[in-house]
Amino acid sequence: MPQRCSDLDCLLDRLRREPAVLVTVSRTRGSVPREAGAWMAVFADSVLGTIGGGHLEWDAERQARDLLNSGEGRVREHTMVLGPSLGQCCGGAVGLRMEPVDRSRFTELQSRLAPPLWPVALFGGGHVGRAIVQALHPLPFAVTWVDSRDEVFPVDLPVSVRTEHSEPVQAAVRELVPGSRVLVMSFSHAEDLEVVAACLHRMRERNDLPFVGLIGSQTKWATFSNRLRQRGFESADLASITCPIGVPGVHGKQPAVIAASVVAQLLMVRTDAVR
Fold this sequence. Notes:
By secondary structure, the protein is α/β, with parallel strands linked by helices. It folds into 2 domains: about 5-110, no CATH class; about 120-275, Rossmann fold (3-Layer(aba) Sandwich), CATH 3.40.50.720. Helices cover about 35% and strands about 20% of the residues. It contains 8 helices and 11 strands. It has a 6-stranded parallel sheet with strand order 8-7-6-9-10-11, with helices on both faces. A 5-stranded antiparallel sheet has the order 3-2-1-5-4. Strand 2 (about 40) and strand 3 form a beta hairpin. The longest helix has 20 residues, at about 255-275. The chain is elongated.
């Protein structure tokens, strides 16, 4: 599973060889393309990251390259009002901070620019699981990837993915980071059932799993619901499980299609969780 480096990793790697100007959205007002904290790095011949595109970004890139070419070490800050003068109709205003950076700032930038990662627990190392891990890679998620089988995980994984062999597989549910979004898609329906049951027990005790999604059909969920009720779970418990997973209306059973739909659903859960 070859992985492209993240913008931050690419930035840190290039700073070992050449300086840049870091352009950061420091503040916003009204409707704007990107949030505070968004950044791009302007090198002599290229740009990494984005502050929203359009004329705003083009003008910021021009100013940043002027600063880079000047050799000045000072920081520049200014506000850009989005409107007719920039050919953008957002109507808000963006504060920009431009600062020269080089390899001496490596540790600071690594800490400062690293996005907060939202935890995902993925049970199942099959084709769909692999597609989901690949789709999650450029997004702000930290993945715990769990399977009961040995040697099912790819060797080359991004640093945001931690693999875990768990036998029985449901034992890993107890140790999940609070706030984990859980995806259940093991090679076995029996394992899926045990993982879902363990999640329901944990939610009764701690109520700290904001999303538990089970891959499958409505028929599969009807069967699971009956079996879980036999174990003492009630309708209110079962209502916390999403099955089938994925954004409603997205059809197609190819792993990449399922992954895109599921990741979109996780992004909506993540957004709701931080409001």
